[in-house]
């Protein structure tokens, strides 16, 4: 009998080689937990070491025989998807902006943050596209406007991908570490533009927002509000100096599972419905026999049921019509999508006000990138002139000073080369990427405002 339930887990494993504490022990413990579970889909983030992926894949292969490790950037995206269903397509979309190569400590540029996805054929739903992502980390929900820009770019590009997948007649499930709390601008863009629904909110209705004057207990923050990161109950967060927001609310909800139905349901009105019935934060305990948690995040699981729109047995083919996938096409922007595949009006879209807020951050980043680029190019020329001066002057210095000037020359050459790349090559890349997205958002805002003022367009 066809299963009418679909269970998914998303989990940030914190698996960076040489940096993450007890990585090997934790990965093995995670694999054991996954092997004893009954998930249909598992999306993992920060599983960067390929040997760790191979280990987990071998342990869970009996229940989840299909897997994809996604490559991106210099060190890999750290994104993995395991599936009980055969994977018929897999793709990865590296985000246009992922921080700077000079920011080695943050590391986002080196790992190439991205949106990864698989498509599988479900016996009742037809094609289902599952996205797994990990958005840009630095420049959180508080701070200067220019620091928020890269995550906003990630959010906009992710929302377009999810929206286009639904436009192809697929059910869409999006999971991962979005590095943003629910009420922030990146999450608004993702939910509204892609038409996504937050599975946690659906299964936890009428939950009041936590109040700074009456914060929840650490356990309630997890159980009621879905906190998955910076919890005082996590061994890697306990005692750590946290941001004010995390201290007020006993952690942050950064991990999500979103879903939506196909944008073009079957004309008969008998397209199956994907509905979440339960979501919960999991892997909150310590690794068995150890004093540390499974990761610096907790996991999030979601259980969906597949139902017939008008009741009846969904496994009876006479009660449902599986949506057929739309013809594949290349959609480079929302303009192309609207011209080649007009989709029916949806209840929500990102508001012009949200687009304006995003444009403020992106414009601030554009100006910041311009000024930084000029400064770095200036450092390049200064270093170059000083280096040439040292080389010329070295003929008049005592012989015993030559090793010192050799070291200084090497350091100046490294600095000049780095500043040339950061200021000119990467700087122009960032400015051009920002220009493209700013212009696209301005066009989109104008289209939204025109649609709102013209009833015939709706």
Query: What spatial form do the alpha-carbon principal axes imply?
Result: globular
CATH topology (fold) name of the largest domain: Deoxyribonuclease I, Chain A
Strand order of the largest sheet: 3-4-2-1-12-11
| Number of separate helices | 11
Q: Could you tell me the radius of gyration in angstroms?
A: 25 Å
**pLDDT < 50 stretches:** 328-347
CATH classification, class level of the largest domain? Alpha Beta
Number of domains: 2
The biggest beta sheet, please? Answer: 6 strands, mixed
Mean pLDDT: 86
What is the number of E strands?
Answer: 12
Helical content (DSSP H or I, runs of 4+): 25-40%
Distance between the termini: 42 Å
Listing every helix as H and every strand as E from the N terminus to the C terminus, the arrangement reads EHEHEEEHEEHEHEHHHEEEHHH
CATH architectural name of the largest domain: 4-Layer Sandwich
Briefly note the structural class of the backbone.
Answer: alpha+beta
Pfam families: Exo_endo_phos
Pathway: Lipid metabolism; sphingolipid metabolism; Sphingolipid metabolism
Main location: membrane
Subcellular location: Membrane
Topology at a glance:
Blueprint lengths: L4 E11 L7 H13 L5 E7 L2 H11 L5 E4 L10 E4 L3 E8 L13 H4 L2 E9 L3 E9 L14 H19 L3 E7 L7 H10 L2 E2 H5 L14 H6 L20 H6 L5 E6 L12 E10 L16 E9 L26 H7 L11 H42 L8 H52 L5
Parallel strand pairs: 1-2, 7-8
Antiparallel strand pairs: 1-12, 2-4, 3-4, 5-6, 6-7, 8-10, 9-10, 11-12
Helix pairs in contact: 1-2, 4-5, 4-10, 10-11
């Amino acid at each position: 009998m066809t299963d009418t339930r679909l269970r998914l887990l998303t989990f940030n494993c914190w698996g960076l080689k040489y940096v993450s504490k007890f990585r090997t022990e934790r990965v093995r413990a995670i694999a054991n937990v996954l092997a004893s579970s009954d998930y249909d889909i598992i999306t993992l983030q920060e599983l960067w070491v390929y040997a760790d992926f191979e280990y987990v894949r071998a342990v869970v292969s009996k229940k989840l025989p299909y897997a994809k490790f996604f490559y991106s950037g210099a060190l890999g995206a750290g994104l993995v998807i395991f599936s009980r269903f055969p994977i018929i397509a897999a793709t990865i979309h590296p985000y246009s902006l992922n921080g700077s190569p000079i920011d080695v400590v943050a590391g986002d540029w080196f790992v190439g943050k991205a949106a990864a996805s698989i498509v599988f054929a479900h016996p009742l739903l037809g094609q289902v596209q599952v996205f797994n992502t990990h958005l840009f980390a630095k420049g959180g929900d508080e701070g200067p406007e220019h620091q928020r820009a890269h995550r906003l770019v990630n959010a906009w590009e992710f929302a377009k991908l999810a929206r286009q997948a639904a436009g192809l007649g697929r059910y869409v499930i999006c999971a991962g570490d979005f590095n943003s709390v629910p009420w922030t601008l990146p999450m608004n863009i993702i939910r509204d533009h892609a038409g996504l629904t937050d599975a946690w909110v659906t299964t936890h209705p009428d939950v009041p927002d936590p109040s700074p004057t009456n914060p929840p207990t650490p356990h309630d923050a997890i159980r009621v509000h879905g906190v998955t990161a910076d919890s005082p109950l996590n061994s890697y967060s306990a005692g750590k100096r946290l941001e004010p927001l995390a201290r007020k609310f006993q952690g942050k909800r950064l991990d999500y599972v979103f879903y939506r139905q196909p944008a073009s349901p079957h004309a008969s009105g008998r397209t199956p419905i994907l509905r979440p019935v339960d979501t919960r934060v999991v892997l909150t305990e310590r690794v068995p026999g150890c004093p540390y948690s499974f990761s610096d995040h907790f996991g999030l699981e979601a259980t969906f049921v597949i139902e017939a729109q008008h009741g009846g047995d969904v496994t009876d083919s006479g009660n449902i019509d599986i949506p057929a996938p739309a013809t594949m096409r290349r959609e480079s922007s929302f303009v192309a999508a609207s011209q080649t595949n007009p989709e029916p009006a949806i209840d929500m879209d990102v508001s012009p006000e949200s687009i304006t807020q995003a444009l403020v951050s992106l414009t601030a980043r554009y100006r910041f990138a311009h000024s930084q680029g000029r400064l770095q190019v200036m450092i390049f020329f200064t270093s170059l002139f000083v280096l040439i001066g040292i080389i010329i002057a070295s003929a008049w210095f005592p012989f015993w000073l030559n090793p010192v000037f050799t070291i200084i020359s090497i350091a100046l050459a490294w600095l000049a080369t780095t500043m040339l790349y950061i200021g000119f090559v990467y700087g122009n890349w960032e400015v051009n990427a920002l220009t493209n997205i700013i212009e696209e958002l301005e066009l989109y805002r104008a289209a939204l405002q025109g649609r709102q003022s013209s009833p015939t367009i709706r």
